[in-house]
Specification:
Elements (H helix, E strand, L loop, with lengths): L5 H14 L6 E3 L3 H15 L13 H14 L2 H9 L2 E5 L12 E5 L13 E5 L2 E2 L9 E2 L2 E5 L2 E8 L6 H14 L11 E6 L2 E6 L32 H7 L12 H7 L2 E4 L4 E4 L2 H16 L14 E4 L6 H14 L5 E6 L2 H14 L6 E2 L4 H9 L7 E5 H6 L12 E6 L5 H6 L28 E3 L11 E6 L20
Parallel strand pairs: 1-4, 8-9, 13-19, 14-16, 14-17, 15-16, 17-19
Antiparallel strand pairs: 2-3, 4-7, 5-6, 7-8, 9-10, 11-12, 13-18
């Protein structure tokens, strides 16, 4: 369909958003004050238990405390941690609340695991008024903003048919430079620029950090762009929002909720907020789904479980994919331990640094200085010892009897595997190891050099004992050269 009017397109986008989970109302032409009052109401509704607010609503002064915290944090990077921190603390100044007056109270704001239920609220804002930072400038009106639990987390800039999506991204940049994303609007994490035929998304980079290289098209399992400008007039924007039968729409619920909670990365090393590309999302979910569906108590009819690998082109973000896969597994408690195995000291040091820069305030990544430390981490029941970075040399020194029996299982993420040395380094001499030569190479890469996601189940060769799990994440050009199945006393395959 051709949209000659941006306003008509806007109304159609709202209709489709409502069909895909944004069910809690449309706020039309609100000011920042209106949105603050809306957030205040939602905060009270979610925190009116006796230990928090009770029957005494939030005051304007208490909301000002929250806004002050937001303004202090300032950057999208820091505010990602604020949003995903689940709670915000205030000092009660409502004198009617005698029990808590002058005391600190912690308020629930958002939980990345509480999706489409419970306390989660999903609202659409149509043409919010952005106050101009400079009094010489007029206030601006955005197109659409998506609120989760009252917080403006996704900004959508729209253009009618025939207007290139680059004009929408330029407008977002202009708004940012003018300073309209301040106050409550500092919470915006994701930008979307869209016309009826083309759409891109990107993490809020902050002022002066916009880079078109990080404007991504959403794509399906085969890395074919959805609403990528290739099929004009075919209403692919609806698929971008709502998805296809095999791929989630970027702006649908639960995907949009997960996008904020799981698929953004506050990279402390680079000092910027990042968001996963579609193939990284697909790969991380494929790995975590396999682990989630694994019945660790059920012994397979044949010993061992099929493994697999994810293939990435060089520089396409395999470190981030492997980290997110591990975080998803750990967050869902589907495995007791997730171990990143490296075959080189320098790679281990670098990867540990990167993983820690990706980790949020709730995620710990443990290094292992020696085999003794590794043994301790493997046997530890501390939740902070779930994600472990170590070398295949240290792991090969740990005998099966020196580790606790896992409740669910241990998952090995073989990061940057590049040769058959994996088999010799990790498995005891008595083990039978196999690398698959029957797995085909990936057949497609997109024109913009983004990696084609590749997930393959390997053939079972020699029946291994069921004990451990392994998946390889690699950038090697020859995917048949690395171990996709490992058989030993200490290696479990899925």
């Amino acid at each position: 369909m051709i949209f000659d009017s941006e306003s008509v397109f806007e109304e159609n986008v709202i209709t489709v958003l409502k069909q895909h989970g944004w069910k809690d109302g449309v706020l039309r032409y609100p000011t920042e004050r209106d949105l603050l009052d809306n957030w205040k109401d939602i905060l009270y509704r979610n925190n009116n238990d006796i230990d928090r607010l009770g029957k005494y609503p939030l005051t304007d002064g208490e909301m000002a405390q929250i806004i002050e915290q937001i303004e202090t944090l300032r950057t999208p990077l820091a505010l990602n941690s604020f949003v995903n921190g689940r709670t915000v603390s205030i000092t009660r100044d409502n004198k009617e609340d005698v029990a808590h007056f002058g005391k600190e109270v912690s308020l629930y704001i958002y939980d990345r695991k509480e999706i489409a239920g419970g306390k989660s609220t999903y609202q659409i804002v149509q043409q919010p008024v952005y106050p101009a930072k400079n009094t010489m400038l007029n206030s601006r009106r955005g197109d659409l903003v998506l609120l989760i639990n009252g917080m403006p987390l996704i900004h959508i800039e729209l253009k009618k048919s025939g207007i290139p999506v680059s004009q929408a991204t330029n407008q977002i940049e202009k708004y940012t430079h003018e300073g309209v994303f301040t106050g409550l609007f500092r919470l915006v994490q994701i930008f979307v620029a869209m016309n009826p035929d083309d759409a891109v998304y990107f993490a809020n980079p902050g002022v002066d950090k916009f880079n078109p290289s990080y404007y991504f098209h959403w794509a399906d399992y085969n890395n074919e762009p959805i609403c990528g400008g290739q099929h004009p007039g075919k209403d692919e924007w609806k698929l971008f929002i709502g998805g296809t039968s095999g791929t989630a729409g970027l702006l649908s619920i639960p995907m949009a909720h997960q996008l904020i909670g799981f698929y953004t990365i506050a990279d402390s090393a680079d000092g910027c907020l990042k968001v996963l590309r579609s193939y990284q999302y697909i790969a991380a979910n494929a790995i975590s789904d396999v682990v989630r569906k694994c019945d660790w108590e059920q012994r397979p009819s044949m010993p061992g479980r099929p493994g697999g690998y994810v293939w990435h082109t060089t520089g396409s973000g395999k470190t981030m994919t492997s980290f997110k896969s591990a975080q998803l597994i750990a967050d869902s408690h589907d495995a007791d331990k997730v171990v990143f195995l490296m075959d080189r000291i320098e790679l281990g040091t670098q990867s540990l640094k990167e993983y820690r820069s990706f980790a949020d305030s709730e995620t710990e990544v443990q290094g292992t200085e020696n085999t003794g430390v590794l043994r301790d981490k493997l046997n530890s029941t501390d939740v902070n010892d779930t994600l472990i970075v170590t070398s295949i040399q240290k792991m090969s020194n740990v005998k099966a009897g020196e580790r606790a029996s896992p409740r669910h299982g241990w998952i090995n993420l073989l990061h940057d595997a590049s040769s058959s040395s994996w088999t010799n380094a990790i498995a005891p001499p008595s083990a039978t190891c196999c690398k698959s030569s029957a797995v085909p190479s990936p057949t497609r890469c997109s024109s913009d050099s983004q990696a084609h996601p590749f997930w393959a189940k390997t053939r079972r060769r020699t029946p291994p004992p069921p004990w451990y799990s392994a998946v390889a994440c690699t950038g090697t050009a020859s995917p048949t050269a690395f171990v996709t199945i490992m058989y030993s006393d200490s290696i479990r395959t899925w």
